[in-house]
Design goal:
globular, seven-stranded mixed sheet, three-stranded antiparallel sheet, 12 strands
Length: about 350
């Protein structure tokens, strides 16, 4: 259960169990961002950054989620990706959500005011898809408590009723093996389990879904040839999902390309096995202390939430254990840089009072 990377890329100063909020940057990502910033400060010709590096991040992410690179669009936030999808729906369309899901998955739809929003508990999501449901928008892993959706059941129900699917993988991509091509759309913030700097986010769009998705924020970077699309209307958009690109933050994507390389080298299956084993160890320790965490589900989760213990987050922070409090839960999340010693440390603090 030790760190698969042997600690070479990461050097947390405290017991860091808060990847659900923000992942740690690998050393090589820090070096890449620093080097580009120094080149920019010095006025070097390559200081602004290169689209080749940005496209390298696109290709790495595509491989991690099992799609071709031409199905991946890049941006700066999940909310903007979701808003693009929300604006494409016709007035009156029904969108099915999970009760208490993360607001960025929901609000871009509800602010329109002319869509039918329906909310159901996570465990009832697949059964709630019905004729007339236009889109099922949901998170693979719930932010508040780490519950993992029954992904196969939701996909099957959506297909049976002709509904499209939007999967938010922000709390899943980087530790949970995913096949993004099984959904019409997926979105993922890069700064959590993907270990990227904030400002990198990813959208996948199936070829079929692309036919109905208008590139409402298209700019020169969405052009088939960006360098001939810099003035006047863009005459020819990229035929791929790149038409949905937002202008990228080069500093963020220079770091992202290096961070995603770490995950590729390690392997998502290996990260999954490591993180869920640590989470299972933590769950067992909680049970010994008389605490009952939110059930992990059939295949486990890298995120463990303990109802009613959210108030102990400040105490843990003072003891050098970094976790988060969400919806009254104490939320603890495990990733490739964590070890059994981290589990034992948080349990020791929790048992002290």
């Amino acid at each position: 259960m030790e760190n698969p990377l042997g600690g070479a890329e990461f050097a947390p100063a405290q017991t860091y169990l808060n990847t659900s909020t923000s992942g740690l940057l690998p050393r090589r990502a820090v070096d890449a961002v620093t080097a580009l910033a120094e080149q920019n400060a010095a006025g070097r010709p390559d200081g602004p950054g290169s689209f080749e590096v940005v496209d390298g991040a696109r290709r790495r992410y595509a491989r991690l989620v099992g799609v071709a690179a031409d199905r991946v669009a890049l941006g700066g936030s999940v909310a903007v990706h979701v808003a693009l999808i929300a604006q494409s729906l016709p007035a009156g369309a029904e969108v099915l959500f999970v009760e208490g899901d993360f607001s960025s998955v929901i609000t871009p739809f509800t602010v329109r005011g002319d869509l039918k929003a329906r909310f159901v508990p996570l465990e009832e999501l697949a059964g709630a898809v019905r004729p007339g449901t236009a889109l099922v928008a949901f998170s693979a892993v719930q932010s508040a408590d780490g519950r993992v959706a029954d992904l196969a059941a939701v996909r099957e129900a959506a297909a049976a009723h002709g509904a499209r699917t939007l999967l938010d993988a922000s709390q899943a991509a980087g530790w949970l093996p995913l096949e993004a091509g099984a959904y019409d759309y997926t979105v993922a913030g890069g700064y959590k389990f993907l270990l990227c700097p904030r400002g990198a986010s990813f959208l996948t769009v199936s070829e079929e879904a692309q036919e109905a998705l208008v590139p409402a924020h298209a700019s020169w970077v969405a052009g088939e040839d960006p360098w001939t699309s810099t003035y006047g209307p863009v005459e020819r958009l990229a035929p791929t999902a790149r038409r949905y690109d937002e202008p990228q933050s080069f500093l963020a994507y220079y770091g992202a390309e290096r961070s995603l390389a770490v995950l590729e080298e390690t392997g998502i299956e290996a990260v999954h096995a490591h993180a869920t084993a640590l989470a299972a160890r933590f769950r067992a320790g909680l049970a010994d202390l008389g605490h009952e965490p939110v059930p992990a589900g059939r295949d486990g989760s890298a995120v463990v939430a303990v109802p009613g213990l959210g108030g102990r987050q400040p105490e843990l922070a003072r003891a050098g254990v970094i976790v988060s409090a969400r919806a009254g839960n104490l939320r603890v999340s495990f990733h490739l840089y964590n070890s059994a010693a981290d589990v034992d440390r948080v349990l020791d603090v929790l048992s002290a009072s």
